[in-house]
Amino acid sequence: MAGKFEPKKPVNLDPPKDDPITLEDLAQANGKEGRKAYVAIKGKVYDVTGTQTYQEGASYHVFVGKDASRALAKMSTKPEDVQAEWKDLNDKEKGVLNDWITFFSKRYNIVGVVQGATNME
Q: Distance between CA atoms of 40 and 21, rounded to whole angstroms?
C-alpha cells in the first residue's frame, strides 16, 4: 500500500542524525517549560517538539523524554509500559512497533541515538 502512514501535509525532514544522546539528555527533552520534546523508539531519537499530542497534559506526553518502544508496540499509554525493551514481545507487537517507526520516520526528524542503547536492531 503506497500511501500507508503518509502525512496529510508534506513534511520536509532533515537528514537523520546519529549524534549520541544520553539518557539524562533524553529525559531533559520532556517538552516542559519550553524544552525540546524527544521520543525514542528502538534507540533512535525523534524530535516531536511542537506536536500537540506530545505536549504536557496531552495523550502521548507519557512517551516524551523516554524510549517508548514497548508501550508503542503494545499500543499502551500506561507509564509502566514506557520502556526501551521490546525484543521479548510477540510478532504482532513487533509488527506494530515497526509500523510506529514508519509513522515517526515520515513525520519527525531523527536527532540522534540513545547512547549505549541495547534495544536497536
A: 10
Q: Model confidence over 53-110: pLDDT tens digits?
A: 999 999 999 999 999 999 999 999 999 999 999 999 999 999 999 999 999 999 999 9
Query: Which residue in this structure is represented by grid cell 499509554?
Result: 77
In terms of DSSP bridges, do strands 109-114 and 44-47 run parallel, antiparallel, or are they unpaired?
antiparallel
Distances (CA, A) of 119 to 10, 21, 32, 41, 68: 30, 14, 26, 9, 11
Question: Which among 63, 44, 60 is positioned nearest to 52, based on CA atoms?
Answer: 60
Residue from 58, 5, 40 nearest 116 by CA: 40
